[in-house]
Structures are given as C-alpha cells and as structure tokens.
Amino acid sequence: MNKQLFSYFMVFVVLLSVITIVPKTEAQKRCRKVLNPGTQCLLAKCREDCFKQLNGNGVCVETPPTSGKYTCNCFYNCGPGL
C-alpha cells in the first residue's frame, strides 16, 4: 500500500512540475491596413508592398462585396494580443 501511495505522490509531483515549468506563450495580435485605397488591387504588387512596408501578407479583397472592385489589404503582426 505504501508503494502505491508513493507512486501516486511521485506522479502528482511530476505533473505539478511540468505544469509550472511549461512557458506561457503570447499570441501576436493581427492587424489589417488598406494599402493604396481607391486603386484596383494587383496581387503581386499588393503582396510586395505589404511585405516591404509592414512585413505582412497582402491580399486583394473585394470591396464592397460583389462589386468587382478589389483593394489591397495588408495583414501583419502589430503587437501582443490582449
């Protein structure tokens, strides 16, 4: 009985130490910025401008929906999440 109790105690100690040692990660907050508003989006240029300006990922988004007009939206990391 004492060996079993000791085994349970050791498992508890190991689990507790793992939980307290594992580092906490901070998620990055994602932001969006419209680049060159009012101009038609060209995907290659949008990606290049976004990467150069904000180190982000540029995508063409139809604005407003079903209009056939696309604007360059740059998604980038702008700081730690809240």
Automatic annotation (TrEMBL):
Record has Disulfide bond as a keyword: yes
InterPro entries referenced in this protein's UniProt entry, alphabetically: DEFL
Pfam families: SLR1-BP
Signal peptide positions (record): 1-27
Key words of the record: Antimicrobial, Disulfide bond, Fungicide, Plant defense, Signal
Entry's family note: Belongs to the DEFL family.
Protein name: Defensin-like protein 165
